[in-house]
Amino acid sequence: MTHPPRSNAALPGPGSSFAFDANQETLDFLQRGFEEYGDIWAIPPQGGAENVAGDGGLPVWVLNDPEAIHEILTRRQPDYGKGVGFERVKMLLGDGLIVSDGDHWRTRRKMLQPAFSRPSVGAMGGLIARCIEERAETWEAHADSGDPLDIVDEANRLGLRIILRSVFGDDLEALDAREGGNPFNLVVDTVQRDLMFAMRFRQLWPVVRELVEARRARGAAGEAEDFLGRYLAARDRDSGEPLDMEGMVDELMTLLVAGHETTAATTAWAWSLLARHQDVQRALAAEVDAVGPAVMDGKMIQGRYDLGSRVIHETLRLYPPVWMFTRKALKDDVLAGHPVPAGTQILITPYLLHRHPAYWEEPERFDPSRIPSSGIAPVRGAYIPFSSGPRRCAGDGFALNATVQHLVWASSRYHLDALCPDAPAIEPGVNLRARDPIPLSVTRR
Ligand code: HEM
């Protein structure tokens, strides 16, 4: 569907278009726009270019207003679908939860929601603990040698193990034992996220299919406490049907894609912040000493460590892994007093929203006292690392649990120091990652 070009005189904005993408140039452009035009502005279309305005001919809206963002993510969610950029992810993840829309998404989300419930995620604590323990050898070696540990690489490797073990459980051993090694290691051994990577990544689909078939063939398919077990047990609420193979593989790959880099980046940024804020690191160690190690009793552990949870929330405020996402108006609407024509693409940038000076005092300062451990920020809509409303991240509880669990484990044993006092450079790609390695020195407590 194309619209005739319209002017959007009501909204301020630059005179010419801009080809936004997931990169630093775009973040700089959005930052400048926010400073110049405020919380709601528009980028003019480039002669209706499909790659700029999606449907062509319409200005792209840029929102940095908590209330307007809250509206479209929550109450008006049915009127705003996934926007520009998601079609690329769709090529990779088919109809998985992140990219699907409408009835298909609604049915799937209901069907799979039990896998993300507190008891289900709480029961995965033991799987996560095993992955954390697996990395102990590396931490010990660094504590012995005094060689700095690159926390970016470490968190990446740990994050991959955590999501793989939470999805495949004990079948991870079968993956590790494959000729040529675990094929998923490609994700941590390749830094580039280019076409070549996408092609090699696509070759993982048959691997996942094999694992699903092997689990099914063993019988008792839906009993395991991993995501694969939960997804095999999932039934459509109306038809009673399970996921078909294609849906199953897309949904499992969605978990791996959604859960790996996001959680890994959060762990890396958290440690980078703690290493540069010794007072908070000491307070966290004291909390862990007082509460004790994380007990795997099938319940969520995150709420037991108040400061631990606050550290993660403040990390997610400063370094939201999903630093930008989009929506598309499905019908004509009025937002903050401005008419929004159907088809309008909307850019939401948690990175800028989380540093909005009207809502955050000294936004650049790391201060875990800002957001309570519940994750509900003082100003509605101003803190959205997991998005909000019906399409809020399904894995939020899992991610918080896994990252707090790692903070607790490492705080009880080690002390980390930054080699450089400055904040590391960011790389706003698909996720917000660190641009360079972040070496930290590890000493035993
Ligand atoms: C700190 C870590 C994480 C962050 C910051 C994060 C962030 C997000 C955000 C912002 C969205 C919504 C995007 C949008 O509305 O357009 C999302 C969706 C989603 N995430 Fe996460 N995520 C994290 C970890 C995880 C993990 C560990 C899993 C799985 C175990 C996961 C599974 C999903 C799924 C399935 C969706 C789609 C939900 C739906 O639309 O129904 N995420 N995530």
Question: How would you portray this structure in words?
Answer:
With 445 residues, the chain is α+β, with helices and mostly antiparallel strands. The chain has a single domain, classed as Cytochrome P450 (Cytochrome p450, Orthogonal Bundle), CATH 1.10.630. Helices cover 47% and strands 10% of the residues. The protein contains 19 helices and 12 strands. The chain has helices spanning 24-37, 50-53, 66-73, 86-93, 102-112, 118-122, 125-134, 136-145, 151-168, 172-176, 186-189, 195-202, 204-217, 227-233, 245-276, 278-291, 306-318, 350-353, 396-413; strands at residues 40-43, 60-63, 80-82, 149-150, 325-329, 333-335, 338-340, 345-348, 414-418, 426-428, 432-434, 439-444. The strands form 4 sheets. The protein has a 5-stranded mixed β-sheet with strand order 1-2-8-5-3, sandwiched between helices. A 3-stranded antiparallel β-sheet has the order 4-12-9. Helix 7 crosses helix 19 (396-413) and helix 16 (278-291) runs antiparallel to helix 17. The longest helix has 32 residues, at 245-276. The model is unreliable at 1-8 and 48-54 (pLDDT under 50). The structure holds protoporphyrin IX containing FE (HEM). Protoporphyrin IX containing FE (HEM) binds at residues 82, 97-98, 109, 254-255, 258-259, 262-263, 266, 321-322, 325, 385-387, 391, 393-395, 398-399.
